[in-house]
Design a protein that fits this description.
The protein has helices at residues 10-22, 33-40, 59-68, 84-92, 105-119, 152-162, 171-178, 189-201; strands spanning 2-6, 26-30, 47-50, 75-79, 97-100, 127-129, 132-135, 140-143, 146-149, 207-209, 213-215. The relative contact order is 0.12. The strands form 3 sheets. Strands 2-1-3-4-5 form a 5-stranded parallel sheet, with helices on both faces. Strands 6-7-8-9 form a 4-stranded antiparallel sheet, with helices on one face. Strands 10-11 form a two-stranded antiparallel sheet. By secondary structure, the chain is an alpha/beta fold. Helix 2 (33-40) runs parallel beside helix 3 (59-68), helix 6 (152-162) crosses helix 7 (171-178) and helix 6 (152-162) crosses helix 8 (189-201). It folds into 2 domains: 2-119, Rossmann fold (3-Layer(aba) Sandwich); 127-215, Winged helix-like DNA-binding domain superfamily/Winged helix DNA-binding domain (Arc Repressor Mutant, subunit A, Orthogonal Bundle), CATH 1.10.10.10. It is 40% helix and 20% strand. The radius of gyration is 18 Å and the shape is elongated. It has 8 helices and 11 strands. The structure holds calcium ion (CA). Calcium ion (CA) binds at residues 8-9, 51, 53-54.
Length: 220
Amino acid sequence: MRLLLVEDDPMIAEAVTIALRNAAYAVDWVRDGVSAAATIAHDEHQAVLLDLGLPRKDGLEVLRQLRQSGNSVPVVIITARDGVEDRVKGLDLGADDYVVKPFDVSELLARLRAVVRRRGGQAAAVLYSGKVNLDPATHEARNGEVAAMLSAREFSLLHALMLRPGAILTRADLEGRIYGWNEEVESNAVDFLIHGIRKKLGADVIRNIRGAGWMVDNSK
Ligand code: CA
């Protein structure tokens, strides 16, 4: 899953980026409100972590404009402002959740997982598709009786498919969810990851739709 981090404090941005990458997210970083608005409009990210006190354009204004334009990307506000008023305003403007700095990264990660699964229409923490299941908190996957721990990128790929069971994702869709701006993508990276996942969980875990892309089944 690819996230956009909007944060003007480089030390916080670096710490959050490292923590998110360790948790298998691809992270792109912008440091002001104008760049944030322009980047969000490109629709490359599956969620946005949004600071409120930002140069050039306030975070609440960024949020207001993006919701007004019909963009429904999940947004978690991260801010030092702990006033009730800002918190309420952010939620009323369409933020999905809110963490107040200083926060524990494990809490941010848990809130992010909750926001993403609610958007996917799932209340349970573990994602299911047929006999395959995936736990976003531990990166453990199961295909029937076979269980395995996935690497960060294997997890990202299977997670992208399991958030939309029954939908075909193309190579470009998958690359866009796994890699950030500064990461070089080898031309066969997706095939390599799928090969690794199948080796761990069995060939039937991911279906290849010839000439189109890949999917997981949406049977229950
Ligand atoms: Ca700030």
